[in-house]
């Protein structure tokens, strides 16, 4: 009986939160900003149908780290964005919020190294077929941070 109440309470919480995210206005603005970034930086839409995982982005930690409901904490592989109190931190974080928060994200998890030293899953993140790691680079919000081993070569994204 207690477990049923807990489950019902959890479901009610999820429905409430999803309603808040849906009504936050992020979904409308983010599509136009992401589309602007795609056209301004010649980003390619991926037709990759073999993503390793997908889920709802429910929290943006900073410009290169997000939380996904089905996987946990994700570190965008191959890039680095400014840390708190550094110039560009808020711009990078806000870009990722507009691109990912409250949306279904698709993950191409690094097959050469699944986790970083903090236990975050290393992945390329896609929203509506757009490589968000690449979009951060092309938009000037991130720098390349290529740490081997990695199946991804972020230098190839800049050509």
TrEMBL record:
Single GO MF annotation: nucleic acid binding
Signal sequence, renumbered to the chain: none
InterPro entries noted in UniProt: SNase_OB-fold_sf, Staphylococal_nuclease_OB-fold, Thermonucl_AS
Keyword annotations of the record: Endonuclease, Hydrolase, Nuclease
Location of the TNase-like domain: 51-159
A Pfam family this chain is assigned to: SNase
Coiled-coil ranges from the UniProt annotation: none
PROSITE patterns listed in its UniProt record: PROKAR_LIPOPROTEIN, TNASE_2, TNASE_3
Keyword Nuclease: yes
Domain of life: Archaea
Protein name, UniProt field: Thermonuclease family protein
């Amino acid at each position: 009986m207690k477990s049923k109440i807990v489950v019902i309470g959890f479901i009610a919480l999820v429905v409430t939160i999803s309603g808040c995210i849906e009504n936050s206005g992020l979904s409308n603005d983010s599509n136009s900003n992401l589309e602007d970034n795609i056209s301004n930086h010649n980003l390619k839409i991926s037709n990759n149908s073999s993503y390793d995982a997908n889920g709802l982005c429910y929290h943006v930690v900073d410009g290169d780290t997000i939380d996904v409901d089905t996987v946990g904490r994700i570190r965008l592989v191959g890039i680095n964005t400014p840390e708190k109190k550094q110039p560009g931190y808020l711009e990078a974080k806000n870009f990722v919020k507009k691109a990912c928060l409250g949306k279904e994200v698709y993950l191409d998890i690094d097959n050469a190294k699944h986790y970083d030293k903090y236990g975050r899953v290393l992945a390329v993140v896609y929203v509506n077929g757009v490589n968000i790691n690449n979009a951060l680079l092309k938009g000037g919000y991130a720098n390349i941070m290529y740490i081997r081993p990695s199946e991804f070569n972020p230098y190839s994204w800049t050509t």
